[in-house]
Predict the structure.
Amino acid sequence: MSRLTPGTVTDAATLALSHGPVPADQVVAGAPTTGLVEVESLGDVEVGVWEMTPGAMRDVEADEVFVVLAGSATVAFEDPALPPIELRPGSVVRLTAGMRTAWTVRETLRKVYLAG
């Protein structure tokens, strides 16, 4: 699915996202919601915008790189060899498929991601 027209601009920071509740079996704390929109695909790579409201959830990650546009959060990893990471605008993160994480969002987090 392509939502981008070559030679035009899409503002990822203000792009409207439709939110839904995080599945109950993934919620750790609060009542977080998430929203996403795929804006482009480049071959097998999906480019999109994802957002999560305050709260905490568990997830199993896809193979992706993302850049945080807004918000703040901590991501903890089930793998004890990996320390938790702090996210803020400008953070660039690489995750690999199958990583088990716990996201604790303090301020609504919005990121642009590339996933394959």
Summary: Strands lie at 19-21, 27-29, 33-42, 45-52, 55-60, 64-77, 85-87, 92-95, 100-115. The chain has a mean pLDDT of 95. The domain at 19-115 is CATH 2.60.120.10 (Jelly Rolls).
